[in-house]
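Quick one, T. Sequence first:
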Amino acid sequence: MQSNPQLEKDILSTLFKHGCIGKHHTPVINMCRNLNQYSCKEIKKGIKSLRKQKYINLYKTYHGMDIRIVPSRLQEIKEIIEFKD
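Structure tokens:
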């Protein structure tokens, strides 16, 4: 299943803007609140696609799943965000 590339760019830019890199993280539900122009189901599909591409990490916390940017892929992510239409 192909994910929306604009949605993926929005997810990455939101994580970057909020500083969710490395040890800093945010719950998946916060992404649904921040990107309210998309449905939460679409956002979860985008997160799954980004995880397969190894741009973000998911990890379990006591309140649910959290996401964060992989620090080693930060340069590639900055290039993706810069070419945002």
